[in-house]
Amino acid sequence: MNAGLRKVREDLRRRFDVYRAKRARSKINATVIGVTGSSGKSTVTELLGHILASHGSVHTQVLANTMNALVRMLYKRIKNTTELDYVIFEAGASGPGTLKPMADMLKPHVAIVTMVRLEHFSAFKTLENVAREKRALVDALEPGGFAILNADDPHVIGMASATAHRVVTFGVSEQADYRVTNVNAAYPDKLTLAIHWRGGVLELKTAFPAEHFWLPTAAAVCAALELGVPPEKVAARVTTFQPLANRCQVLVTEGGPQFIVDAAKSPWHSVDLAFDLMAKATTKPKRIVLGQISDYAGSTRKYRYAYRTAREIADQVIYVGDNAHRSGAGQEDRDSGRFHELRTPKEVSEHIKRTAVDGELILLKSSSRLHLERVALAWTHDVKCWVPVCGKREGCDTCGLYEVPFEEHRDHVRQRRHARRWRRFRRLLGA
């Protein structure tokens, strides 16, 4: 088959898939909720799904947040739509014009916007462009729907003036409909907060290790309460929710370190949040491992700034990856062991294995490109996939092949797929 014909066939298949997705959406009677924002949207989506699961049947689509993922969710993954009470979709944007088609197809009854930051800098260039893209979800609301907006972010709350739909706000602002107070977290003490709303005051205890998680918590709680979930049920469900993998996930090892794994995303604004977690933690000693910083404007001098900040917080700072040489660490810090410059996650793992102190706190902070979560996984699993950059977007927990050498992944997946097909075939024969 020549390339031209293959392209035509692929285009026709995509069009047909989109048609089936739109048709599937028209049959959904459930309350459809869309979540977007520069950070926090995955946690909001998963936490809200966890809360609503105590109130009805829920389908949650998290992490896979592209147009293709939405299409697949609508026509493949949502079955028995009459039995669903809620559908929650996390909508991401990689550049101008990428979120609007998703919003128009999703047609949410509830649109949640967490924050606007300069993500995907090379594509968006300005905060205004990011805000314009995120607003598409609010613009696509169904009649009678409502938006839940961050009252503390001027680019988010600005969306309220551009919509005729009902707007509900959350934040620390005095004007917020759901006002957040008493935010406290100092690891190992987990996040607690209070939310003041028209129903009174809701005291919340969470499993999050850092204060900045108040924002996704408040957004999810606001949505759940607006959708009629009883406050006591909301509080109980928040208490039992565990942070998502690689998003400030806590991994405590027996006889070894405690890891804070924040290796899913690393836009510049999130680096200080992770450092703040470490600064407020009472566990000692502390180490910070910094890999790839992403989505920032300006020069690579940000690695120098990050080192100066990390040095004041941690007993040792480790830089890893292609930008490890940009720390600006002095020779004295290098000679004393205060700073280490390493090239690969495997080198980091080996170094920590040699020098680990029982109970110490180690932050693993990087974009997903380096998969620094392997450093923590190596304490409880036989990690054999140590390729510096594998090209996979999902975390190692989702991939599940970290105990298989990278060069064997393809054959391993093929064999596993063949085994599944053979099991299905045998079940059919038995039927």
UniProtKB/TrEMBL annotation:
Q: Does the keyword Lipoprotein apply?
A: no
Please verify whether the record's keywords include Ligase: yes
Q: Which molecular function term from Gene Ontology is one that the record holds?
A: acid-amino acid ligase activity
Domain Mur ligase central residue range list: 35-224
What keywords would UniProt list here?
ATP-binding, Ligase, Nucleotide-binding
Against Gene3D superfamilies, the record matches this protein to: Mur ligase, C-terminal domain (3.90.190.20), Mur-like, catalytic domain (3.40.1190.10)
Q: In terms of domain of life, where is this protein from?
A: Bacteria
* Protein's recorded name: Mur ligase middle domain protein
Q: Which source organism?
A: Mesorhizobium metallidurans STM 2683
